[in-house]
## 1
Amino acid sequence: MLQRLQQMTLGLGAREEAERQEHDKMPKPPLKVSIIGSGNWGCTAGILVAENCAEKPKLFKEEVLMWVHEEEVEGRKLTEIMNTDHENVKYLPGVKLPKNIVAESDLATACKGADVLIFVVPHQFLEGLLPTIKENMAKNAIAISLIKGIDFDESGIVLVSDVIRKGLGIEVSALMGANVASEIADGDFAEATIGGPAGHARVLQEVFHRPKFHVTTVRDSDAVELCGALKNIVALGAGFCDGLGYGNNAKAAIIRIGLLEIGRFIELRSGEFPTEILLQSCGAADLITTCYGGRNRKCAEAFVAGSKNWEEIEADLLGGQKLQGTLTCAEVFKVLAAEFPKGNADDHFPLFCNIHRIAFEGAKPETIFDGLSKSEKMLEEPGVPLARSML
Ligand SMILES: NC(=O)C1=CN([C@@H]2O[C@H](COP(=O)(O)OP(=O)(O)OC[C@H]3O[C@@H](n4cnc5c(N)ncnc54)[C@H](O)[C@@H]3O)[C@@H](O)[C@H]2O)C=CC1
Ligand SMILES: O=C(CO)COP(=O)(O)O
């Protein structure tokens, strides 16, 4: 007992020391905040951030630079429209942006001297931006990813935050949650979860938390980020259900089994089923909102109803906004094929595999429920079979 207490005290001391070192390395306020991305969520999150920067002059500089992938909208540059009319008429029409958001199409200028970097571009556009950001950001900058996506290479899963970490050589946290952007832009209440080192998460909470946008913090940033990426696959399944005309019970089954497979997939990486993280906004709550109100759901419903491919559906329905679930579904299927070389990924992830077959291999949408009872076996011995197969 005494030994355990001593170990705990030592553990606490080591953690405090690590936090002190982390604090010493942090940039000093007032912090300059830059947002990399200006889409539907980029602009909405930008409103929350800009309001905090205006209200907390001791912590943050008032001006928030937002990098915009420049394009012409009705004969005018989007940056010019945003800086004059204070509205992103293409990606968040009808919503006024605070005047302290400054749209900037030159990436080097947008992140020059930035102490806090907020990444919110669709994940397929991220990597090429990083060398310029590295050259221009502040030396001790901290970063956070709001991007819901995933990659894969010969060594397995590559998180978006891993890509940023590697590209910039700095620590990266993640903010994920039940955050359909249009609802937050309308002023509805929402919650989010930040995963990251404690010191960073505290500062980042100051950046995002608002009276109607409640942010909690946890340490396990990988699990938070994976929840945000993987729920988009399940949302495709929910959309298939809607396209087939199934009711709420069927969709609830997809959501429940999807939650289980999200947990299992995180377990593949960490060895632990992340029950507590799944109970955060980034877990069950994001899954529910996306399966009812998200773009992935909407496009998957149209996929069942018509004969168009994903690119055509995205162009038809999203007005330039980007679908992330199909890319994530393809990447995750590659991870599963590599993790289960005997071809038995189906035994552990029947729903993810069915969704991939429907989305990319011409399987009938009605097969969405095939073999899902396999997931019940996993519940009989939670954690054990999968963790063993990974050793
Ligand atoms: N919209 C939402 O409700 C939410 C979105 N997210 C995530 O946020 C991330 C960003 O999504 P949104 O802000 O919604 O974007 P979006 O899908 O509304 O807009 C697309 C963005 O991509 C930019 N873009 C187009 N071509 C580009 C290129 N070649 N290079 C660089 N940028 C290019 C456009 O300028 C635009 O800003 C995604 O990972 C998404 O999953 C997360 C939570 C909520
Ligand atoms: O992530 C989202 C809500 O939290 C939005 O999901 P969609 O990209 O499917 O719209």
## 2
Amino acid sequence: MVSSTECPVCGVAASQACTRCKMVRYCDREHQKQHWPQHKRRCRPFSEEQDAELGRYLKVTQDIAAGQIVFIEEPLVVGPKWYLSDADKEASIVPCVGCCNPCRLGKHQCRRCRWPVCSAGCEHESLECSVLSLRSGSPARADVRSLNDYFRGDALLVLKCLLLQRQSPTKWSALLEMQSHEDERKGTELHEEAEQRVVSYLQQRFLCRLKQTNPNLLHDCGPEMLHRLCGIIETNFMVIELPTGVELSGLFRQACMMEHACQPNCDFQFDNKTQQIAVRAGCDLRKGDHLRITYTNILWGTQLRQHHLRLTKHFSCRCSRCLDPTEYGTYISALACLGDVNQTCGGTHLAVDPLDENTQWKCDTCPMLLDGAYVSELQSHMTEHVEGLLGGCPSANQVELLLARLTHMLHPNHFHTFNLKHTLIQLYGNEAGLELGVLSNTQLKRKLRLCDELYNVCQRLDPYSIKLAIYVTVILIEIAHALEEQARRAPAEGASLLGLAQARLREAHVVLEKEQESVAGKKLSEKLQKEIFECEKLILTLSYSQDHDVDQK
Ligand SMILES: C[S@@+](CC[C@H](N)C(=O)[O-])C[C@H]1O[C@@H](n2cnc3c(N)ncnc32)[C@H](O)[C@@H]1O
């Protein structure tokens, strides 16, 4: 919706904008009042704005309290996941083309187009089905890899977009207004991959036949349009996680206008029944604030986030975190200074210019400078080690060993050490042979210290737990575990330690409110309920035994 310059009541040129949304103008108060019954359904506490750097974005026009729904919106398109990992390409469970429920590949197929459905009776949109029925050939083999390659979900998402030109001209034009970064994509790996996986696949399998059998069905389905749609998806898609664990991608006219920041102020939830997205204020928003979500992983260091944003969204983020070499004092990208050959200086290397991919890294204590290329090679080498280890369910001992090796080179809060420590706090107290009762006092203290370090990093990066609610909840539960165990060991301080544990669990309860709809949030919520109950039981048991002791004395 572009803001109109004519009064919707009488059509004359108008200058008084609706103060809430600034999207409609009136010639006078009387006509504004008259129009309110219609306008109130569209009037929202933000306006659509545009600027040379951000493109379109959303600006708050009146204060909004934390937790309040800012707007609810229907999708333009919802479809299969856009980025398919290697594991996805070998998955035997895929979303049903009809209802998106998980279904086993090869079990049921749509009677007409043969694409995977969850049950014989599950139907899908008829135009989509008739285009998919034009397929040529059949899967080379019946193994999951061949079937996944034959029924490509990411290509189906592009086809869903393409068919809007027939199904809904309004949605089609809204889709084409979205940024695609077409020019920047040309000649890149992403463009080449889109050509291989999506454009040539759709053309050879379905669209060439469509041109012969029904040339007037789609006005524009050539390779340029397909590439443009790939760019629109890449730039705008939002990740939707269903309660079944299925991940989908969605495009929304307005929600996709929200700009990126590495410290967001909004989050969103998808309702699978209505297919609507609800955008919510993650903290108190003031008039003039922009609505911001995060397009990348906020637990990555600046170089990695910037690289990801440049590669996929074609911009350099200049938010306050990206401009600050310490990243709000977390030092999450910082390296430990190795000093000269003889001894380390104990200092920390920080990027001289965090926005420059090739920046040098300067020690804050000695004159040592590190080259950008060296640092990025070191980082990716470490990524391999950390991901390799954490992907294989390691023991606490294995994690400690890698941590000890990396500690020489990284700041204690570096994102690689953050990941290792977040795993460790869950292993201490839960791994077989390292149950809470078996941990030494030193191990218990270490668990608590690691939890505190991780909690502080999360608080600085995401003070309202908009993105890190799950991480923070896990940390708070582990803190409570350690405090409860300390209370068991030192009954004299038991009451105060259990009080602290209970407070941490209550805090976790509040933090987890934000994740009520996600699969991980639901699971964790059940665990948290039990933890709260167990903690209350411990408190009662302790006060009973203390009362009992007093009586006996
Ligand atoms: C999801 S779209 C947002 C809506 C888009 N601005 C439009 O006009 O349709 C993402 C694109 O917006 C721009 N953008 C979003 N956040 C930005 C930021 N923090 N700095 C610069 N550009 C940004 C980039 O071009 C990015 O690829």
